[in-house]
User: Fold this.
Amino acid sequence: MRLSQYLAHAGVASRRHAEELITEGKVKVNGVTVTELGSKIDPEIDRVEFNEQLIQGEPKIYLLLNKPSGYLCSVSDPYGRPTVLDLVSKIDQRLYPVGRLDFDSEGLLLMTNDGYFNNQMIHPRYKINKEYQVWVKGKVEFGEENQLRRGVELDDGMTAPAEVQILQTEGERSLLRITIHEGRKRQVKRMCSAIGHPVISLKRTAFGCLSLQGVSSGKFRRLMPAEIKQLLDMAAGRQY
Ligand code: URA
Assistant:
């Protein structure tokens, strides 16, 4: 869709006036001033600002869901398994999960209809920390814990250094807290298997500045504007 058309639809100005606003440098797309007439945007993905104010097409929505195990992180499933959308069915807007948690994983999952936000959260360039609590088979020794910290070789390459703590050892299993900023497919499970301790269960307990506090399993809450800003700032490399 043409940028001027988008601005007109959003009620910012008439089409003609919107073109003037663009050439005057008053419109930004994804943080970059756009002055070219005829510029196109994808309303699902791009973030348009006029005079530093975000233009809302469809109202943007940001949820923090505490995903239970046994739900697919997908908008539909050909095999009819429950999906995370079933857990937010009282929200009318179209939503999709930000990144993935495996079917049998649980914990903190963001959901949104803001494509720009989604991209900032999942792109490998933006290093948002994700914290997991993981029960693994066997007793994890100090040397093995250190291997995870330094990085382990997976079939898609070496993992970046991770923060790792052994929280508990109970019989023939150990509870680890692992914090990583990468988001490769099944990464934590593959990392633990690589040091000889397959994962029994996995829960994401934090994502950037967010935790699961106050949100029980299967429930969700909306993010506050300050939280959305903080996450976007973190993705942009601004420290907290
Ligand atoms: N790492 C995994 O292996 N699985 C998840 O669901 C999330 C991170």
